[in-house]
Amino acid sequence: MTAFFALATSLLWGLADFGGGLLTRRTPALTVVVASQSIAAVVLGAIVLATGGWSAAGPQLWFAVAAGLVGPVALLSFYKALALGPMGVVSPLGSLAVAVPIGVGLLLGERPGLVQIAGIAVAVAGVVLAGGPQLRGAPVQRQAILLTLIAAAGFGTVFVLIAEASSSVTGLFLALFVQRVTNVVTGGAALAVSVRHGGRALPEGGFPWASLPALAFVGLADVAANGTYSVAAQHGPVTVAAVLASLYPVVTALAARGVLRERLRAVQATGAALALVGTVLLATG
């Protein structure tokens, strides 16, 4: 069950990142984040009302609030790092997010077997290579490296927090709703500050109404990924769930290949293959 839900997480996050990347080509990144998360918050709010999720409210919701505060900071740091580039270095470094939940799992006493340890090593190497690391070329700014590490730590922290935010299905819906509302408030505040300092909130043609279905998909896929990861982490070793869930860069690369006809570099194809091998080792270990 852990492997199934963790792999579902990587699929959903990978597709959400791909969709978000396409949207940010035409719309400011902060606007994409706020709009997509707002749609997700509305849908989750309706689900919480329909399922009576408010009855599951408790102190654990503070984990969801914390995840909602950390998430936008990590995302903005990652976008800024990508802008500074080179992307071929920044993207694979973002995969280091997996180190946070793995470290927490080990501190909590999880001890993966030899096959799982091998699977973790192979899968992480595959994820890094699938990002297409730039081995030569322009120098990397220290600020880009720092921002990427901040983003990776933030993403990994969200992994840990959302897994602790609920212990039931109705509680999970409520936790995801609280997280999304916090995301919107935090992201909206950052967007307001950006506009005040001369940034753009909308593309030249105004609000991209034609992109609403895509925005909804990105927001809801991200929500679903958080939910499946929470289930995976609660029903099996966090170390295994975190590594399998971190395969989303492979999904993004394959989506770009299939939809945009982007050609995978040899190093990316090798990474995808290694990630698959690591997945098999983890699932069978």
TrEMBL record:
Residues 3-130, 144-283 form the EamA domain. InterPro entries: EamA_dom, EmrE-like. Signal peptide: none annotated. GO terms for cellular component: membrane. Keywords: Membrane, Transmembrane, Transmembrane helix. The chain crosses the membrane at residues 6-23, 30-55, 61-82, 89-108, 114-132, 144-163, 169-195, 207-232, 238-259. It comes from the Bacteria. SUPFAM superfamilies: Multidrug resistance efflux transporter EmrE. Belongs to the EamA transporter family. This is EamA domain-containing protein.
